């Protein structure tokens, strides 16, 4: 009886059964392909068309690249090596790399100076871009612009020292008057910095500190991708604070400051950049005192900075308008003055909202630096279109040179884009 009863009791498992793997079409690469490339008949058709286009491009481009000639002194020599087969003439990059990067007049023995300035650029930008680093590194960031100027142009160390003194005086002026008006403090700081630099240059000529002199290189000898990088870094760095000041000035309660900012922004945004570059090349020199000899590089920096600052001002104004009114009221309730409210509460939130727009302006500005070739400045595109293609050895080489330029610009612009996406994720403090 007991045996029959024991056999009738159901078996109860004492341990959990192991999980079975999901079906092959519900996980892994098959699921990804199904969800992203072949989810619907229309998506499947577009995927097949895209694959065919990519196959046609790859099969047409790879033989041209893999058969490329890297050692030759001319295009005719490349054609002799290829002997009728399809292939690129990358030898032009090997022969003219120095002109593509530094121009054709920058002294060869001084390439280490702009190279060192380029390396130090990453050291100076690191504490600004990655704010988890020690704040003490900002000291080098503040010194770097003057050091880079001295490395690239050379000459006496007096000019960068005077410029540093002018910036320091402008900063103290800004700290003193920004509480009453941000725009007054900012633009007043610029005026004070220029006055200190000008008066100091008149009192203390460059020959006074001869021991700090290096071989001078005039701006007309700069060229290649170095010129594009200098315009891009300088103008973006200057246009961001100027754009913030213009955006705040446009919202100012002072009618005169608001009127000036509105007129400036609307006028600059309504004029093509190429027109401003012609103005910098031909007319801007007449606005300076006779005999001042303002360099063309400085004139172009002024115009490009003004152009990009107007667009950045509108981007930041959109960020300010996106903030709820309660943020301004919260700052007032804490007893903060205008400068403190903007620095601690309003601008951090507005700038976070404006990151995509600011990056878009920065990328567009960096690409627009190639327009300086129309005013006879031999940047990377100017070098390609001018001295290199005009030479008898490399006349007719287009894809290799412009492809090299495209790669350089893509690397820089893609790096800026990736950093902005990382920054957006890093600052994503809202509730989702």
Task: Please render the helix and strand layout as text.
Blueprint: H1 2-8, H2 28-36, H3 41-66, H4 75-82, H5 91-102, H6 112-129, H7 138-153, H8 158-177, H9 182-203, H10 224-250, H11 255-269, H12 273-282, H13 296-322, H14 325-333, H15 338-353, H16 355-368, H17 380-390, H18 399-426
Question: How is this structure best described in words?
Answer:
This protein has 432 residues and is mainly α. It has 2 domains: 24-66; 101-427, Orthogonal Bundle (MetI-like fold). The chain contains 18 helices and no strands. The chain has helices at 2-8, 28-36, 41-66, 75-82, 91-102, 112-129, 138-153, 158-177, 182-203, 224-250, 255-269, 273-282, 296-322, 325-333, 338-353, 355-368, 380-390, 399-426. The chain is globular, with a radius of gyration of 30 Å. The N and C termini lie far apart (65 Å).
Summary of the model, kept short:
The protein has 432 residues and is mainly α. The chain has helices at 2-8, 28-36, 41-66, 75-82, 91-102, 112-129, 138-153, 158-177, 182-203, 224-250, 255-269, 273-282, 296-322, 325-333, 338-353, 355-368, 380-390, 399-426.
């Amino acid at each position: 009886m007991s045996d029959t009863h024991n056999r009738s009791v159901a078996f109860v498992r004492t341990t959990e059964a192991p999980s079975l793997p999901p079906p092959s079409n519900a996980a892994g690469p098959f699921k990804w392909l199904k969800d992203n490339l072949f989810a619907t008949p229309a998506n499947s058709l577009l995927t097949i068309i895209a694959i065919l286009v990519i196959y046609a491009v790859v099969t047409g481009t790879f033989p041209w690249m893999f058969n490329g000639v890297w050692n030759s002194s001319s295009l005719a020599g490349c054609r002799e090596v290829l002997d009728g087969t399809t292939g690129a003439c990358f030898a032009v990059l090997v022969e003219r790399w120095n002109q593509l990067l530094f121009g054709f007049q920058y002294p060869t023995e001084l390439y280490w100076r702009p190279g060192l300035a380029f390396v130090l650029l990453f050291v100076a930008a690191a504490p600004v871009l990655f704010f988890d680093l020690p704040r003490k590194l900002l000291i080098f960031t503040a010194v770097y612009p003057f050091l880079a100027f001295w490395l690239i142009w050379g000459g006496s160390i007096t000019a960068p020292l005077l410029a540093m003194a002018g910036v320091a005086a402008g900063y103290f002026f800004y700290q003193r008057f920004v509480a009453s008006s941000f725009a007054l403090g900012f633009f007043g700081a610029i005026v004070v910095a220029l006055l200190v630099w000008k008066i100091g240059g008149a009192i203390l000529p460059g020959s006074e500190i001869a021991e700090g002199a290096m071989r001078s290189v005039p701006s007309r000898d700069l060229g290649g991708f170095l010129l594009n990088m200098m315009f891009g870094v300088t103008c973006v760095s200057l246009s961001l604070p100027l754009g913030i000041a213009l955006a705040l000035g446009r919202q100012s309660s002072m009618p005169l400051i608001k009127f000036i900012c509105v007129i400036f922004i609307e006028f600059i945004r309504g004029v093509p950049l190429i027109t401003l570059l012609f103005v910098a090349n031909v007319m801007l020199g007449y606005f300076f005192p006779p005999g001042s000899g303002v360099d063309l590089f400085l004139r172009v920096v002024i115009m490009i900075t003004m152009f990009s600052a107007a667009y950045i001002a509108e981007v930041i104004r959109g960020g300010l308008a996106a903030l709820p009114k309660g943020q301004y009221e919260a700052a007032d309730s804490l007893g903060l003055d205008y400068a403190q409210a903007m620095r601690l509460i309003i601008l951090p939130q507005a700038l976070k909202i404006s990151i995509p727009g600011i990056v878009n302006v920065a990328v567009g500005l960096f690409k627009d630096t190639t327009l300086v070739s129309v005013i006879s400045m031999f940047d990377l595109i100017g070098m390609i279109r001018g001295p290199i293609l005009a030479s008898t050895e490399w006349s007719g080489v287009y894809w290799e040179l412009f492809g090299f330029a495209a790669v350089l610009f893509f690397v820089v612009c893609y790096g800026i884009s990736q950093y902005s996406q990382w920054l957006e994720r890093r600052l994503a403090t809202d509730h989702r």
